[in-house]
Amino acid sequence: MENNLSMSDHHQDKSCDATHEEMYKFFAGVMILIFILALPLNGSVLHFFIFKLKFWKSKTNHVFLFNLVLADILLLVCLPIKSYNYIMGERRSENDSTCKAMLFMFLLNRGASIAFLTVTSIDRYFNVVHPGRKNLLRALKKSPQISVLIWLLLLPLTVPPMMKSFKCCRSLKDHGENGTITKDVVDSLNEVVFFTQILIPFFILVYCTVRIINRLRKKTVGDRTKLKRAVVLVTTVMVVFSFCFLPCTIARMILLVVRVQEMSEHIQDQADVVFDGLLVLSYMDCLLDPLVYCFSSTRFKALYLSTYFPFLAKTSVMRADSSTRKSAQPLPCRRDSVVLDS
């Protein structure tokens, strides 16, 4: 009896191990690089929102963007711990409490990042496609209520992974003695949460992008500059979203198929590695989100550069002034044209 229990524990411990240690060390290096680059960038943006821009007084969507950068910073906190696990040859922490805390932080802050990216695009969609229509989002975006509501709505989505205790906090491979993915309700809820957090916002982003682009095509008179800026913003959001989240979603689907069909252990290990690698790619969202801040407001971009990179701001101003002067100068008159006109 004791011998069987020890063999079972040994098997579960082995299931925590990374079968391709060199590959996981590479993943750890990528996460450390993302952390080194993204933390000061997002930290400066957070400082800028609070002390320079005073987002709570803004009449634009700066409240949404502040919550977006806050979610990114909280997500970045997980990267050193996850990198350490990968370097030690572990896919997940063997400590159940640490693993669940990491999973909670990951689900909450990744969900918040996706939610505020989506809300930013929806806000721009209403401003461009339905400029005169009153909507709840426009009324609440000036106050923190809707942001607090989004955070509260995301909390229940983190409950399913916390409901069950399993070795190494792995919901895809260790389902208990008799449970399977299709029969275990908790695991099914985990997968529903994972896919709905990504697929539903993606379809919303596609819809907003298509409608705003169509609006730009139909507008033949009037100011098209703001409309083009809106197109650039929603397109940037959709590109960042697609690059960071869709690959790991496809890998998750493949991994579930491999698990359900009970393919060979080698294929399952390969699917695990691919999924974990593309999950690391999703952390690039923390590094690419500042692009959304720049494209969302020219005022934000100008103030940010003048505050933290004044030499870049001066260069851009000098270029703009020189181009303005060149365009303002009259065209030189040629003698032959004067003669012909006379």
TrEMBL record:
PROSITE patterns: G_PROTEIN_RECEP_F1_1, G_PROTEIN_RECEP_F1_2. InterPro entries: GPCR_Rhodpsn, GPCR_Rhodpsn_7TM, HCARs. The keyword Transferase does not apply. It is a multi-pass membrane protein. GO terms for cellular component: membrane. The chain crosses the membrane at residues 26-51, 63-82, 102-126, 146-163, 192-210, 231-258. Pfam families: 7tm_1 (PF00001). Residues 43-293 form the G-protein coupled receptors family 1 profile domain. The keyword Disulfide bond does not apply. Its main location: membrane. It is found in: Membrane. It comes from the Eukaryota. PANTHER family: 12-(S)-HYDROXY-5,8,10,14-EICOSATETRAENOIC ACID RECEPTOR (PTHR46048:SF11), HYDROXYCARBOXYLIC ACID RECEPTOR 2 (PTHR46048). Belongs to the G-protein coupled receptor 1 family. This is Hydroxycarboxylic acid receptor 2-like. The lineage of its organism: Eukaryota, Metazoa, Chordata, Craniata, Vertebrata.
